[in-house]
Amino acid sequence: MKTTAINKIVSIILLAGVCEFGLAGVPAVINLSRASDNPKVIEITAKKFEFTPSEITLKKGEPVILRLTSSDRVHGFMSKPLKIDTDIPSETTKDVAVTPDAAGNYTVICDHYCGTGHGNMKMKVTVVE
Amino acid sequence: MEKKFDRRSFLRVSGTALSIGALYSVFPALTRSARAEGITRTLADLNGEAPAPFSFMQLSDTHVGFNGPPDPLGTKAFESAVATINGLKNRPELIIVTGDLTHDADSPDEHAKRFKLFKEISSRIGGAQIKVVPGENDAALDGGDMFREFMGPTHYTFDHRGVHFVALDNVSAGRPEVGAAQLAWMKSDLARFPKTAPIIVFTHRPLFDLKPEWEWFTSDGNDVMNALAPYENVTVLYGHIHRENFHQAGTTKMYAARSLIFAFPDPATSPMKKPAPFDKAAPFKDLGIRRVNGNALGNDLQIEEVALATAEFSGTVGMDQMLKHGNNDAKDE
To answer: Number of A:B CB contacts under 8 A?
Structure first.
């Protein structure tokens, strides 16, 4: 029983290796492997008092890199359910790795006060299955 | 055996929440309780003042400088609250203001004018000492520099009638946080008190996750609450959310105050954090003063809702002429 399980794991690893060399294999395995190794990068720009884009869609369980840039001053980027909580320093770029663990609609807010329109600075994140 | 306060005799407020201008009447009745004599002496030694009956008021979110929409009346509610306080038969000797004294301004000169106007209006309250903490509008853009210049330190403690007050700053870091240094300061300050000491913490933002996506939280609020948890008689008063709210964690009770500018909706039923529209027929709707009266024994407290005066806006002048619809860009707190 134990030997059978190990054989299956070895087979999957070998198959994944074959796929990486582009010979033959299972597309699903290729996609998962590449998603883990090279997460999709989504660029988001912050400036008073908006994020651009203002809405993004992610896939549950799929790691992504949110590449955050502020074009004017320090902003925050926070969503408790998505486990994101960071500042975006002025005129710099910051990468945040996210792997959503549940489908749904989420709101990311700027939680670093940036002026009188600060309370309306937010973006929508939709996580699909 | 550890001597304890009767909690109800320390700070008892009827109802589930307090409104702006909530007038707390504190009747510890400690000196009448044999079991409380020890703690009374202890507090007298620590503070130089034993617990005694007194009352105070909480104002919040006056946003001086804000001039609609949705509220086109600017400081009128604040001024009406001041007039109402001055008209009380039993005037409070202590006023606390839980942040956003001013509305933020792009120009430092304009913001300074707003601080001056806050001081001018609040100084009309006679016979009361006024203690304030900053809101993000007051202190988040400059780290609290202007607030300190006009109002003093952003965090501090004081004792009043045997009650220990802690003014906590969870805004001037820019983010909703207290920060490690201030937390250590608070822990050190409280360490000299017995666990039964009456403590009132006042701050701007909620210290718990009330509605994080509306920025109604403090990122290290749990650390603050854990530091307060060993103390049995802690009350937290805050503002920021422009509406009443009550929340209890362990024995710590937390009350939000309404604002003196406009109300926010109930996050449990509203999908949007959008200020309540101005009601011309009821310009101070959801703004007002709650007065709590207590008898000498501290039981059977009476609640009296006191509406802000609106006579100024009626009669021949009329509301329409009073409305000054500005183009202020603030649509939020």
So the answer is: 55
Beta-carbon separation of A119 and B174 below 8 A: no
Q: What are B206-257's pLDDT values in tens digits? A: 999 999 999 999 999 999 999 999 998 888 999 999 998 889 999 898 888 8
Residue B2, in any domain of the structure: no
Quickly list H helices, B197-314: 221-228
A48 touches chain B (CB under 8 A): no
Residue B317 counted as domain residue: yes
Residue A46 to residue A76: CA distance in whole angstroms: 9
Looking at the domain A39-128, which fold is it? Immunoglobulin-like (2.60.40)
Q: Which of B:287-326 have CB within 8 Å of A?
A: none
ipTM computed for the complex: 0.76
* A122-128 and A55-59 strand pairing: parallel
What interhelical angle do B180-190 and B221-228 show, nearest 10?
10
Q: Out of A107, A113, A122, whose CB is closest to B140? A: A113
CA A75-B257-A83 angle, to 5 degrees, is 35
A113·B171 Cβ contact <8 A: yes
